[in-house]
Amino acid sequence: MPSQTEENYLKAIYKLGEAEPGQDVSTNRIAAALATRAASVTDMLRRLADKQLLDYEKYRGVRLTAEGRRLALLTVRKHRLWEVFLVQQLGFSWDEVHEVAEELEHVQSPLLLRRLDAFLQFPSFDPHGDPIPAEDGAVRRPVQRLLADLAPGESGTLAAVKNTSAPFLQYLDKVGLPLGARVRVLDKVAFDNSLEVRVNEGRAISISAEVSRNLFLE
Ligand SMILES: [Zn+2]
Question: What pTM did the predictor assign?
Fold first, then answer.
């Protein structure tokens, strides 16, 4: 059974690999993602390689083995199911769940996980719109576009956030941009690429370029 630290490494490597498919993940990027020194990362990578959870070559970086990927996806699955539970059943807001789910994701009970999934009626997405990996590790990836890439006149439904930090989610709450909102681009300002958008056929609001690069529409 992997330790919590091992699970966190596998999850971080999986996510970094997703961000740049086909590339090996470098020690420096893992160290940055986990806010650890490169030397401790190297020790842990050797340990995970000994357990055959990843392939590690000193100057090239790492790549998860099939078993490493399975464990990473299982941890992601647990994390996202717990996030759904916290929001739907315990009244957490979407900016409060991540830290708690970071702890709950390490509970090792396949029975608990199956019952949690059934209790929640087998959700496909977490409260931030990220897909919940299926029991067999399959990840459903809907076709999504960044709001920043839409032209004036185009519209879509807000499906996921790229930035899941609490300040960003709180900002979305404040301006009234929840997941599921219909968003239509009215105008794009050439000067700074900010957008004027209409939300749910209601009022028009101005969205900065930075914000528009962190919202996925379907
Ligand atoms: Zn989370």
Answer: 0.90
